[in-house]
Amino acid sequence: MNNSSNLSSVENALKILECFTIDETEKRVTQIAIELDLAKSTVSRLLKTLLNKGYVKKNPETQKYSLGTKILTLYSSLMSEMEVVKEAHTILEELAHETSESVQLAELEGSSVIYMEQIKSSYPIQIFAHIGRINPIHCTSSGKLLFAYQKESVIDKLLEMNFHRYTSSTVTNPVILKEELKEIKKLGYCYIQNEFIDGIVSIAAPIRDYNKNIIAAVSLVGPIQRINGVKAQQFINKVVEASKKISLKMGYRT
Q: Which residues form the IclR-ED domain (predicted)?
């Protein structure tokens, strides 16, 4: 099957999912085919695939199809992401106010980290990641932290990547990186300096949900001239405390 056919199949499958409404939650193959002006054989084939994946279900008595529970999984995932941004916002603002540095909220997106929220530093020269920005996982505090909490099989798979060296301090050796990930998980936070950008310090801590799953990371970033020595440890404590506050709001209990 060529790329054009693949795209057509995906588009038609999405049309099928969209044809179910509050007023008509169940439909037969023939009805869907007529409404979408598609061949009955095409609709039948796509419904079979959607059924196998859990996106639709079939009533054996009426032979009608309706949306499956997998749709709820996608919806829950979206709601979880939106909820964590909402719940975290005030705490992120407090952290930014207490430290005067830029803070972010990020989640893992495949082999990268994506920023969902950010509060700017109050300093004239600011260092922050805009919402929607995608950064590498191996040399950013949020990325490295979320990397560390993945399943062992996922970590090993990601470690097969060819990691780009951004600075002389960027760790690209998979053996060394794996040891660092173990240490990060042991500590419960990630502190890095000069790994993604020279002269920059970044600190991240995990956010957990009611199932105790790591769903995101809160991070703080600023120049090494401002974040060093005793102040660095103070900021680590503040980031960890902020992550715990957000986790509690997400229903996490020890």
A: 70-252
